[in-house]
Amino acid sequence: MVGGRIIVFFVTVLSVWTLMHLYAFWRLGSLPGLASIPRWAYWVAGLLLWWSYPFARYLDRNGFSTELSRVVEFLGATWMGVLFLLVVALLVSDLITLFGLWKAAVLPARAIAAGLALVLSVVGMVQGNRAPAVQAVDVTLPGLPAQLDGLRLVQLSDMHLGTILGERWLAARISQVRMLQPDLIAITGDLVDGNARHVERLLPLLQQLQAPLGVYAVTGNHEFYAGLERSVELLRQAGFTVLRDEQVEVRPGLVVAGVDDLTARRQYGIAHRALERALSPRPSGACVLLSHTPWEVERAAELGAQLMLSGHTHDGQIWPFSYLVRLSYPYLGGTYQVSGLTLHVNRGTGTWGPRLRLWKPAEVTLITLRAAGAAAPISHH
């Protein structure tokens, strides 16, 4: 049953990937510059682009990782982002020309669409390669002891460490976090991208990610894909406290709870009562819940969580993909108030696949916890 669900998932993804290539190359093939290319060469190029990213991931997962495969993966991932923008732009051109009925406008519309997609791709690459922005959020937690008022919590999510985001990028993020002087660090899943082996070599760096009250982590769907137990062991070797449907009292009056990823559990058909196990019973005071996927938010509020930190959605990463993501994840990105609970969905500290973002930057979240009734902080500009 579990294997069947995963097979259906990957067959669906591969089918969409194939249809996107067929549509884009079918439409682009009519443009004068491309129409002059021999058809066999044109479609062979399309086949190579179709094969690039899946083949690079196959090589990587099966131990054939070389500098060449890393280059192929980077190019294939970049092409993934460009292809998405091409398909969207070409679909808009088809709507404008009534799918070819307005014949005089067909070629100009497609040429403009292709040009616009390429320009947006460049903008997305620039945005995707910029350092994550620090998103500052103040959250008042009923039950938080007065002596913990002003506690600084830094959330990192969706770093996707692997062949594309590696040592240099991680070192820069650790420096960025240190400058924020956190009391506590929360990692809300997908630290591993697809191959735990690449994260093993980053352990000396990850071990430098420290905070006085500790570093707490939960799994994301990519930890499941990379091998759940191996990924969890890596997180523990890095010195993180991994919360798997459990809780820990960080200080009297402050509990941090965490659950294994809900999206992966649905994909694998794993039954669970994760929130109940993580949140009840627990000591009195304030409670922060870490959950990679921003689902079951209302249930978390019912069980007494006051702050929920999630990721997974990347806030769509490449607009207008965000509209599709919102169909499954209505809490797409930012801060929400849900039944007395504050939910913050991190946009992703890293990127998945292409290093492209439109229009919102990557994010490191700085959350200042406030005790109810505490004096408002003095602003420093």
What does this entry look like structurally?
This protein has 381 residues and is α/β, with parallel strands linked by helices. It has 2 domains: 2-128, no CATH class; 133-371, 4-Layer Sandwich (Purple Acid Phosphatase, chain A, domain 2), CATH 3.60.21. Helix content is 46%, strand content 18%. The protein contains 13 helices and 12 strands. The chain has helices spanning 2-28, 32-35, 39-61, 67-96, 103-128, 167-180, 196-200, 203-206, 221-237, 262-268, 274-279, 297-302, 321-328, and strands at residues 133-141, 151-156, 184-188, 215-218, 241-242, 246-251, 254-259, 286-291, 307-310, 334-338, 341-345, 363-371. Helix 1 packs antiparallel against helix 3 and helix 4 (67-96) packs antiparallel against helix 5. The chain is elongated, with a radius of gyration of 23 Å.
Indicate the topology.
Blueprint: H1 2-28, H2 32-35, H3 39-61, H4 67-96, H5 103-128, E1 133-141, E2 151-156, H6 167-180, E3 184-188, H7 196-200, H8 203-206, E4 215-218, H9 221-237, E5 241-242, E6 246-251, E7 254-259, H10 262-268, H11 274-279, E8 286-291, H12 297-302, E9 307-310, H13 321-328, E10 334-338, E11 341-345, E12 363-371
Parallel strand pairs: 1-12, 2-3, 3-4, 4-5, 7-8, 8-9, 9-11
Antiparallel strand pairs: 2-12, 6-7, 10-11
Q: Gap between N and C termini, in Å?
A: 57 Å
Provide the CATH architecture of the largest domain: 4-Layer Sandwich
Reported by name, the CATH topology of the largest domain is: Purple Acid Phosphatase, chain A, domain 2
Q: Count up the domains.
A: 2
**What's the alpha carbon Rg, rounded to whole Å?**
23 Å
Helix content: 40-55%
* CATH homology-level superfamily of the largest domain: Metallo-dependent phosphatases
Number of strands: 12
Strand content: 15-25%
Parts with pLDDT < 50 across at least 5 consecutive residues = 376-381
Based on secondary structure, the structural category is alpha/beta
Strand order of the largest sheet: 1-12-2-3-4-5
Order of helices and strands: HHHHHEEHEHHEHEEEHHEHEHEEE
Described by the principal axes of the CA atoms, the overall outline is elongated
